[in-house]
Amino acid sequence: MEKKFSQLRRKYEEVAALGSAASVLGWDQRVYMPPKGAEARGRALAALEETLHVKFTAPETGALIAELYDWAQARGGDSFEAAYLRALKRDYDKAVKLPAAFVSEFSLACTAAYEAWHKAKQASDFSVFAPHLEKMLQLNLRKAAILDPKAAPYDALLDIYEPGMTRARLDAIFAELLAGLKPVIKAIAAKSGKVSDAPFRGDFDPAAQLRLADELVKALGFDFDRGRQDRSPHPFTTGGSINDIRITTRAHADWLPACVYASIHECGHALYELGSPQDFEFTPLAGGASLGMHESQSRFWENVVGRSRPFAAWALPLYRKHFPGKFDNLTPEDLYRAANKSAPSLVRVEADEVTYNLHIALRYEIETMLLDGSLKVKDAPAMWNSRMKDYLGIAPANDAEGILQDVHWSQGTLGYFPTYTLGNLAAAQLFNAMKRDLGDTDALVARGEFAPLLAWLGGKIHVHGRKYLPEELLQRAIGEKLSVGPFVDYIKAKYSEIYGF
Ligand code: MG
After folding, report:
1. Among the four 17, 47, 120, 129, which has the fewest Cβ within 10 Å?
2. HSE-up of 7 (CA within 13 Å, CB side)?
3. CA angle at 87 for the pair 10 and 225, rounded to the nearest 5°
4. Buried b vs exposed e over 181-214: b needs ≥16 C-beta within 10 Å?
5. Would you tell me how many other CB atoms lie within 10 Å of the CB of residue 412?
6. What is the CA(293)–ligand 1 centre distance, in A?
7. pLDDT at position 296 over 90
8. Other CB atoms within 10 A of residue 233 CB
9. Strands 227-231, 244-249: pairing kind
10. How many CA atoms are closer than 13 Å to the CA of 194, on its beta-carbon side?
């Protein structure tokens, strides 16, 4: 059996190697590729991905999985072999169900939908995107039926991004979360003049911003021998290997947090990837347990650490160093408050940590209604606008700053948005557990000693890669199920102190 396992591993290594190449080409496409290279790159990536899909779904692989599965589990559920087979079987079973013709139809429809979304957003005209959203909806309904004909479509799709999660649980999570956050948002609105983000507005040299971003992520533990940081319009993290993780950030001359916090956020994703054990390289165990668990890491560093009072105290000298004169008269407290201004806004990616999850709730509700047929595509913009008014008291003036703002639906991903909220919830739970273990994390952060925090996350979360499903991983790490209370408590405590209510 050991021999057969080696055979399976060699087969998977070829797939992983192709995936690694595709990932670096995809990174280049979004960071350095000249615009006219787009067509050739699209063809190269499509060819690679098709080869990868064919190789991955080869019947011999399925036969080896079937033969080895029980043998591997018998070695103990936590063993490398057992986890390897579990992770591979999950991926294989999903991939093999999707016929190549469907995968290709889906991919072509996404390309067309992305083009249409881009045009629609520029013209702020939902009608340009509407037929493509309808197509995405129908394709996702088909995909859901292929993947799990017994499940409700939303559950089948959600399982791709957050294995084990269900719509029933999400409904309860969002209900509790909204009930907890709405009074906080109201209380902040009554004191809206109390916090100024003026220190972050002005004219900041983009090159200096990137130097600051490099210094920040290096301090957090990002290893530049095993990764890079570059600039791209939409920040992201990708990787060709456990030892080659790429992050990007952006730089807006007039708004410093766009660079700083995107950089810290993506660094959080990267630290998770870089934390996989070396023997997970080119195995299905490398990476993160789910998108939600991944987001718990990015949001932990971005918000729980990066927007904390001790972080402001530690970071102020760096701001002064990279922007001489601009921060001289500011105190750490000014910086802390500037980083935590909360106000209803129309755009999710610019939302503060209090209002952010209401943006997600709105998208989740629209996705579920579209998929269960209770909302028609043509009525989606009106639903968007009325929910915005209901949740945040503001309404978009047009579709570009409303329903057309996010790229996700044009890329065929429905059922993905809730993972952002799940990450925020888990980050608060992890922080509480970390403080129980490490004691005064504020003192560590104020001194710029981030290594103990990273080591704690590494030992509890990163070291397991994709060995366990997200909820099992959380249970093992901190002995808790995912819950809403710790996040709401964290928000209430932090913002009642900042705003004085
Ligand atoms: Mg993220």
Report:
1. 47
2. 12
3. 70
4. beebbeebeeeeeebebebbeeebeeebbbebbb
5. 20
6. 10
7. yes
8. 8
9. parallel
10. 15
Spacing, Cα 423 to ligand 1 middle (Å) = 9
Residues involved in catalysis: 266
Retrieve residue 377's tokens: 């595509």
Q: Please provide the average confidence, as pLDDT, over all residues in the chain.
A: 96
What pLDDT, in 10s, does the model give residues 264-275? 999 999 999 999
Please give the structure tokens belonging to residue 110: 């996404």
In the chain, count H helices and then E strands: 20, 3
CA dihedral over 203, 207, 208, 211, signed as positive or negative? positive
Supply φ then ψ for residue 472, to 5 degrees.
-70, -40
* Residues bordering ligand 1, an ion, CB closer than 5 Å: 298
Q: Which residues of the chain form CATH 1.10.1370.30?
A: 167-499
Q: What is the pLDDT of residue 108?
A: 85
Is the full-model pTM beyond 0.85? Answer: yes
Hey, which residues does 237 pair with through a beta bridge?
247
Please write the tens of the pLDDT for every residue from 111-165: 889 889 999 999 999 999 999 999 999 999 999 999 999 999 999 999 999 999 9
- Taking only Cα atoms into account, the Rg of the chain, rounded to an integer number of angstroms, comes to 23
Residue 228 β-bridge partners = 246
For residue 141, the model assigns a pLDDT of: 98
Distance from C-alpha of 134 to C-alpha of 380, rounded to nearest angstrom: 11
| Residue 87 pLDDT > 90 | yes
**Cα-to-centroid distance, 248 and ligand 1 (Å):** 12
d(CA 422, ligand 1 centre) in Å: 12
Q: How far is the CA of 266 from the centre of ligand 1 (A)?
A: 6
pLDDT in tens, 390-444: 999 999 999 999 999 999 999 999 999 999 999 999 999 999 999 999 999 999 9
pLDDT-based confidence at residue 255 (cuts at 50, 70, 90): very high
| CA 310 to ligand 1 center in whole angstroms | 23
Structurally, at CATH architecture level, domain 167-499 sits in: Orthogonal Bundle (1.10)
- State the pLDDT at residue 100: 83
pLDDT for position 35: 84
- Residue-wise DSSP of 296-335: HHHHIIIIIITTSHHHHHHHHHHHHHHSTTTSTT--HHHH
Whether 88 contacts 65, CB under 8 Å: yes
Chain centre to alpha carbon of residue 139: 23
